[in-house]
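Hi C.,

You asked whether I'd gotten around to modeling the 171-residue construct. I have! Everything is below, sequence then structure, no commentary in between.
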Amino acid sequence: LIIDDGLLGVTLFAMPLGMFISLPISGLLTEKYSSRKMAITGIVSYGLTLLCITFCQNVFQLAMGVFFSGIFYSIVNVSMNTQGSIAELNSGKKLLAFYHGIWSVAGFLGALMGMSTVRYNISIFHHFLAVTCFSLICVGLVGKYLYRLPNLENTGRPFAIPEKSLLVLGF
């Protein structure tokens, strides 16, 4: 699939759109089914979506692929933040800043991997296949250790008007 830069930019906007739309739904799903189940489901679905993207034949398919990757990213984001909050409560230590730091390191390593695939002319399919396989292996190894504590997984209201101080900070 070959498209120009402008159309690619518009198409890639589908990912944050999927994230934005699914964020409140992700909270509800996490609360209903558990952060453990949603983290595992989100990671597996995200990996499979990446693989599907490599088979896109037109811009619409690509936009739908990145839209769904945004949805599954949001599910993983909410469920893993819930897992981090539970870990904080269980340990009595402040851990979320550390977890977000590790997330940033992982993002850096992912960018390095992406850069390497371009440098060594590795196909997108093989790149995404490696990412998906790595993700599935990690889920298989550590998924059983994720928390399953429904009484601690209340995510609150899915839609709320932010406090004035948060609006000011946002602007």
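If it helps when you're writing up: The chain has a mean pLDDT of 91.

Thanks,
B.
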